[in-house]
């Protein structure tokens, strides 16, 4: 139900940005699991809120 509500707002550029942040979160989780680098992945979750704001601002200015 939620997917049909937000579908008009999800653009290709927004999906690209969210996928990029998600990839970095998966990378940081992997580094922690392998004990290569201790990264607190839960502290990085608010980074998922940045792409929608950034894409909205960029599209408003035509960038």
Summarize the structure.
The chain is an all-alpha fold. The chain is 60% helix and 0% strand.
Query: How far apart, in Å, are the first and last alpha carbons?
Result: 32 Å
Fraction of residues in helix: 55-70%
Number of helices: 3
Give the oligomer, counting copies of the same chain as homo and different chains as hetero: single chain
Largest sheet: none
Number of strands: 0
Summarize the topology:
Layout: H1 2-6, H2 12-33, H3 50-60
Structure commentary:
The chain is mostly helical. It has one domain. The protein is built from three helices and no strands. The protein is 60% helix and 0% strand. The mean pLDDT is 88.
Please name the defining characteristics of this protein.
63 residues; mainly alpha; 3 helices; 60% helix; 0% strand
